[in-house]
Design a protein that fits this description.
Layout: H1 2-16, H2 23-36, H3 43-52, H4 64-77, H5 79-84, H6 86-100, H7 106-119, H8 129-141, H9 150-166, H10 169-178, H11 182-198, H12 202-218, H13 220-223, H14 228-244, H15 258-264, H16 291-305, H17 310-320
Helix pairs in contact: 1-2, 1-3, 2-4, 4-7, 6-7, 6-8, 7-9, 9-11, 9-12, 11-14, 12-14, 12-16, 14-17, 16-17
């Protein structure tokens, strides 16, 4: 289009010559163009992508929100091109791993990883996802014991989305191959107690409700978890919070060293109003319009398939008025 012809050449120049004053604004505009552009996507976009994957470009905190959105748009719109170019795909994976290691950028890593979960075929996962998942778990083990921060939120939403999109077996097998009983331990000691503390966004809550429900209801191994009742209670409580309009605590510590934040970069990110992303376009589960109805139907199926869980399900249905 004419807009792309005017915008993309100076955008490439601004990124290549590291003109930091204009980068956040150009990136937002290009992200919106790529999100809304009808297929096929012009080659000029593909040519620009390697520049955006260089770690120095991410050094400016002002660039990070817009760059994250733009990389996710690339993953969403030119998935086949990225997968076909192994070097380019590995660059993206390397960037995700790099960003995940810092408390200042881990949320952007999870955002891109979630886009991969939504758009890259699951047949490719064995080539790279175990490495990234283990990197996330290594980082998790280094968190403070009382952590309620954004990394924990990102990890819970990532696991939930993985299961919501692809069922429980792939992630369950991966975690069990890392350490026997790891999924049940994570569910009992992290996922369940933290779910309603750290997950506040309505779309993230929906992802967690659907993902945890699929794990508990579709996996026969999960049916034997000692924390099954407590975990499903957490899902129902989250749904009840939705219905009751209860606002969760938004003043949760994000595990950020604020002195480091000040010194990290003096630049600030300014969102362009006309380039804002529509909230509805960010829902990765459009095929589940009502998480509550989804959970009720799964519980009904589970009660008939796993009679030992039927009394617990009946109690939950009565307590939370699931019908």
């Amino acid at each position: 289009t004419a807009m792309e012809g005017m915008l993309l050449p100076p955008f490439k120049m601004v990124m290549e010559q590291d003109i930091t004053e204009f980068q956040p604004y150009f990136v937002q505009l290009v992200a919106q163009l790529l999100e809304k552009r009808p297929a096929p996507i012009p080659e000029v976009y593909v040519q620009t992508l390697p520049i955006l994957l260089q770690q120095p470009v991410w050094a400016s905190k002002a660039n990070q929100p817009a760059l994250s959105r733009l990389i996710k748009a690339y993953i969403n719109r030119i998935t086949d091109v990225i997968i076909a170019n192994q070097a380019l795909f590995h660059q993206i994976l390397g960037l995700i791993q790099f960003l995940m290691m810092s408390k200042m950028t881990d949320n952007y890593a999870f955002g891109m990883l979630n886009s991969i979960i939504c758009h890259v075929p699951s047949t490719k996962y064995p080539e790279f996802l175990p490495v990234l998942t283990n990197a996330a778990l290594d980082r998790f083990q280094k968190l403070p014991q009382a952590s309620n921060g954004k990394f924990l939120r990102g990890l819970i939403v990532f696991f939930s989305l993985y299961i919501a999109k692809h069922g429980p077996d792939m992630l369950l097998n991966q975690l069990e191959s890392t350490q026997a009983g790891l999924m049940e331990q994570f569910l009992a000691h992290v996922w369940v107690p933290k779910l309603n503390q750290v997950v506040n966004d309505s779309i993230d809550k929906k992802i967690c409700q659907v993902g945890m429900c699929r794990l508990l209801c579709e996996s026969q191994r999960a049916h034997k978890f000692g924390c099954w009742a407590t975990a499903m209670d957490a899902v129902c409580k989250s749904l009840q919070n939705n219905r009751g309009g209860i606002h969760m605590n938004n003043n949760i510590e994000d595990d950020v060293d604020f002195e480091f934040l000040v010194s990290y970069n003096n630049s600030s990110f300014m969102a362009l109003h006309n380039a804002a992303q529509e909230k509805s376009s960010t829902d990765p589960l459009p095929d589940v319009p009502d998480a509550g109805r989804f959970v009720i139907e799964k519980l009904q199926q589970t009660a008939s398939q796993a009679p030992n869980l039927a009394p617990t399900i009946q109690n939950l249905a009565q307590q939370y008025q699931l019908s």
